[in-house]
Amino acid sequence: MNKNAILAALAAAVLLGACARSAPKPAARKVLYYRSPMDPKVTSPVPAKDSMGMDFVPVYADQTPAPAEPGAFRVSPDRLQLIGVKTGTAERRDLVREIRTVGRVAYDPELYRTEEEYLAALAAAKSSRGGSLLASSRLRLTLLGLSGAQIEALARAGRPDRTLLLSPGKGGEVWLYADAFESDLPLLKAGQAVVATSPSLPGRVYRGVVASIDPTLNPRTRAVRLRVRLKDPDGDLRPDMYLDAAIRADLGTRLAVPRDAVVDSGIRQVVFLDRGEGHLVARRVTLGVSAGDWVEVRRGVEEGDRVVTSGNFLIDSESQLRGAEASFGDAGGGE
Asked: How far apart are CA 35 and CA 48, in angstroms?
């Protein structure tokens, strides 16, 4: 090796040494606190051990929201993008539930006869006769689903409803009898709007209202019978025709989240709150009624909270994996 080559090698070595000395050292990760590997709610400001002798797990500033929340964890923004995470908002909104059922156009001779009996008993009671008969016939009307207001309307009309026996023809109304499941009963009441259609009459829409709801439940089907007064402007409907019916139940204004935000295991219902910059919080919720694409939340979120609506099943797996790692004392703090 000649003299120039030796001098060049020495200069390179000196330059590399200077660069190594001047290179910044990686910043130490800041530890916020230490938590028990078996119970994340138990924390310590300094390193500690639990009752089983396991080291507390350090929680770093770059992996947990500040301030820390129960159920909080962090997923890198790149990973969230890879998962395809989308978010929505918990908001107060008017919820409308559509209860779908099948009904049958039918006459009701039994109800007609009971109305006749009630009107006869009412006339007898006015002449101080038949008071007990009036009470029993009123009770029978109640058992057949008529409300107090409907019984009073019958008394004012002074005659039974002839549509219970005969077709009214064009421009009249028919009776539709439909069943509602036990789970839908809290949402049903007389006067609700009904829209009905028939596969045999495509394009025709028939509108009406729930006239009465039977007070007793069928023990075999676990359903209750509804009586619907349905307008038949063209006289198309005939007895024993089946119609698809939808009943509109207005549920009022309630705090709700998109249905896709809820991860339901059958035992627990969880939503993931998005705190920004990859910080997420798993929050167990108590649900109420569902309506279309929305579901009421009675406990667990607040109005304005951002909730994950897409990719939350993958995030659920991610959060459970982190819990498993923590329980084995993983102190890596990686994402």
From this structure: 9
Single pTM value for the model: 0.61
Tokens of 178: 């439909």
Q: State the DSSP H helix or E strand holding residue 98, giving kind and residue range, or none if neither.
A: strand 91-105
Count of CB atoms within 10 A of residue 140's CB? 17
The pair phi, psi for residue 85, each rounded to 5°, is -75, 135
Q: Which residues are paired to 34 by β-bridges?
A: 44, 58
Based on DSSP, count helices (H) and strands (E) in the chain, helices before strands. 6, 17
pLDDT digits (tens, 9 = 90+) for 262-294: 998 888 899 999 988 788 888 999 999 889 899
Q: Are 83 and 314 in contact (CB under 8 A)?
A: yes
Distance CA 322, CA 300 (A): 22
- Tens of pLDDT, residues 227-253: 999 999 988 898 889 999 999 999 999
**What is the token pair recorded at 323?**
């819990």
* d(C-alpha 195, C-alpha 100), whole Å: 10
Show me where the domains of the chain are located.
108-165
Residue type, 63: Q
pLDDT of residue 177: 93
Q: What are the φ/ψ torsions at residue 33 (nearest 5 degrees)?
A: -170, 180
| DSSP helix/strand/coil, 282 | strand
Is beta strand 223-232 parallel, antiparallel or unpaired with respect to 201-213? antiparallel
SS3 27: coil
Q: Assess contact for 74 and 65: CB atoms under 8 A.
A: yes
